[in-house]
Amino acid sequence: MAVEKIYKEVQDYYGKDLKKTEDLKTNACLTPARPLPAFIREALECVLEEVSAKYYGCGLVVPECLEDCWILDLGCGSGRDCYMLSQLVGENGHITGIDMTEAQVEVAKKHIDYHMNKFGYKKPNVNFIHCYMEKLSEAGLKGECYNLVISNCVINLSPDKRAVLHEAYQMLKAGGEMYFSDVYANCDLPEDIRKHRVLWGECLAGALWWQDLYNIAKEVGFQPPRLVTASRITLGNKELENIVGNYQFVSATFRLFKISKDSTAQRCEVIYKGGITGHEKELEFDVNYRFKQGEIVDVDEETAAILQNSRFSAKFLIQPLGKKQPTPGRQKLKIGDPFKFVEQMEAKGTMKTPSGCCGPKGCC
Ligand SMILES: C[S@@+](CC[C@H](N)C(=O)[O-])C[C@H]1O[C@@H](n2cnc3c(N)ncnc32)[C@H](O)[C@@H]1O
After folding, report:
1. Are the C-beta atoms of 171 and 144 separated by less than 8 Å?
2. How many CB atoms are located within 10 Å of the residue 353 CB?
3. Residue to probe by mutation, ligand 1, list 71, 100, 202, most atoms within 8 Å of CB
4. The Methyltransferase domain covers which part of the protein (predicted)?
5. Domain 262-325 has what CATH class?
6. Measured from the CB, is residue 85 less than 6 Å from ligand 1?
7. Where, residue-wise, is CATH 3.40.50.150 in the chain?
8. Dist. CA 235 → ligand 1 center (Å)
9. Cα separation of 281 and 326, whole Å?
10. Predicted confidence (pLDDT) per residue in 30-75, tens digit
């Protein structure tokens, strides 16, 4: 599909066709129901109903260690995640939301004063910009300014995913992180699915084959993606299920770090000091690493480089392993495939159900 046609159709979908979460035709754009920590639930409850009603995300984009962070939200829509995060970064942090659909940006902008008053801030710590995520520099955003780039169910809608990741990389400071949830397919999707307007708008037809995310991330300069969580998408729409056939989809959250090429790292023993808001006793970093406060964990070179060179460095004691052999039993097989992760969770019977969150079927 031509780029301009994709933009126009997606803008119409989110600006005109959909008025509220309940208008979605599949459950692809709904956050899997999972228990939320109280501090996130409370932050979400403070977001104005008119903003939350136009939420179309597929994950929870709340990375840890957010105090004072500068965050850029790609495809912020009506701004629900921006207003939630505005509370978590605090008055000295800042959130910029960008979106190409004017109607959504208008809703987001309209309620800045309401939220700042509600949060008791003297001046706004959010702003919203109407622009394309593939052209952030052209829109006047300054590079290397952000600690975090987030996105919730948006990148699948882009006709040029490489450009999105490249721009995100440019916007991040060294040691910064892209933390985003999106929809992925189990292989390259065929033309007839890719050209389906509703399936594209519903965040399915444009889904990347998950392995391509690893390729693009590497080309752009990121460390290999770290899988945070994933859940299976069942469309819940017979007509669209027939078109999609046997192709499978998951909603998955990945974290990608921008670590300087000069930073050499070796295997390390690390100890989480604790103290990150909401994760005081335990930090679930991704599906492979879980750090309990005070416990020694052997980490590989990549993980050591991330912990040493990102906002997490102050939260860990880090000691190179040197010639010491890794402790048996502390080694783990790494999972990077979100489909394999979902299968393992289903086999264990611990999969979260892919039902709606802040959508027609209830609210988290
Ligand atoms: C599924 S909605 C998610 C919105 C928001 N993240 C949320 O959680 O409610 C996708 C959003 O991405 C925006 N979008 C899609 N492609 C975009 C692009 N190339 N540049 C900027 N925004 C885009 C759409 O306008 C829409 O608001």
Report:
1. yes
2. 12
3. 100
4. 68-221
5. alpha beta
6. no
7. 9-258
8. 19
9. 24
10. 766 677 899 999 999 999 999 999 999 888 899 999 999 999 999 9
**CA distance linking residue 75 with residue 154, whole number of Å:** 6
What pTM does this model have?
0.94
Closest atom of ligand 1 relative to the 152 alpha carbon: 6
Hey, what are 125's tokens?
């710590």
Contact 247, 187 (CB under 8 A): yes
Q: Indicate if ligand 1 lies below 6 Å from the C-beta of 70.
A: no
Task: Give CATH for domain 9-258.
Answer: 3.40.50.150
- CA 37 to centroid of ligand 1, rounded, Å: 26
Angle between helices 80-89 and 38-45 (to 10 degrees): 120
pLDDT tens digits for range 152-161: 999 999 999 9
